[in-house]
Design goal:
The chain is of the alpha/beta class. The chain has one domain: TIM Barrel, CATH 3.20.20. Helix content is 30%, strand content 18%. It has seven helices and ten strands. The strands form two sheets. The chain has a seven-stranded mixed β-sheet. It has a three-stranded antiparallel β-sheet with strand order 2-6-7, with helices on one face. It is globular.
Length: 274
């Protein structure tokens, strides 16, 4: 089989996590190769778990060889590049060198395949060259606030350049690095989506301003997700369907919204029927 001759996706509009119309038509594979994380979100827990749908969870970590073999086996089986491959955990993609080794290996073998990654954005500016060199053209950054006074209630700590920061200082550093990185990524020609976790009573009144700043920084689509109570926020309530809908409608006046997010695991494999 001449794998190099298979058809490839040609537009970000065909990315299932950027375009609602592509969500059920284009497959997605998350490779769980990035265990380390450099921040602590109050709503986050990292677990090895095989049977519960939860962002950042995976049954187990894959080695570089296992990840590359998985992708190749799917291509051979489907005879098509009708899916995207991403790294979305279990930790932060950019805090793990293996992310770049895996994506570069996949690019070398399957240059037609669309690759992507998800990140908290702390290292986005620092590792932008590595991202581009690995062939990644679409990234998702989780950005929850623009105000560090609000951010201190969402983030417990941030570890950057061998120093651990806490409270409002941690949030301020993260926010600054996120927007610096997004600006650089957009300037480099990458397509950027923002994920935002809606936490009632914490950041719900700040989302419209966040949407404006994301738009002005060059983000093309925003994905507002409901809080899944966990970690230090295990006793917080998730937003109601009405609250989530209102937030999306309000922000849609500023920036395009993505509505089909399933808050996937770090090892999700979804391949649509043909």
């Amino acid at each position: 089989m001449n794998i190099a001759g298979l058809p490839a996706m040609t537009s970000v509009l065909e990315h299932p996590c950027f375009n609602d119309e592509a969500h059920e038509r284009i497959g997605r594979i998350h490779l769980p190769v990035a265990p380390r994380c450099n921040i602590q979100c109050n709503y986050c827990e990292h677990r090895m778990c095989a049977d519960i749908q939860h962002p950042g969870w995976a049954a187990r970590l894959l080695s570089e060889a296992e990840a590359v073999d998985l992708v190749r086996s799917v291509i051979v089986e489907r005879q098509a590049y009708d899916f995207v491959v991403g790294v979305a955990g279990p930790g932060d993609a950019l805090a793990n060198d293996k992310t770049f080794h895996v994506l570069a290996s996949i690019r070398g073998m399957h240059p037609q395949l669309t690759t992507c990654l998800c990140t908290n954005g702390l290292l986005l500016d620092d590792r932008l060259h590595d991202i581009v060199e690995a062939g990644v053209r679409t990234i998702t950054v989780t950005v929850n606030v623009t105000d560090s006074r609000v951010g201190k209630d969402i983030y417990s700590r941030v570890h950057y350049q061998d120093t651990t920061y806490q409270g409002e200082e941690a949030a301020a550093i993260l926010i600054e690095k996120q927007f610096l990185g997004i600006r650089g990524a957009v300037a480099a020609g990458l397509h950027v989506k923002a994920n935002t976790v809606l936490v009632p009573g914490v950041n719900d009144e700040h989302l419209l301003e966040l949407a404006r700043q994301l738009r002005d920084t060059g983000v093309t689509v925003m994905n507002i997700m409901p809080l899944i109570p966990a970690g230090k926020m295990k006793n917080y309530r998730p937003p109601s369907c009405g609250e989530l809908q209102r937030a999306r409608q309000q922000c849609a006046e500023v920036i395009r919204q993505f509505h089909s997010c399933e808050q996937c695991r770090a090892d999700v494999i979804f391949l649509p029927s043909r």
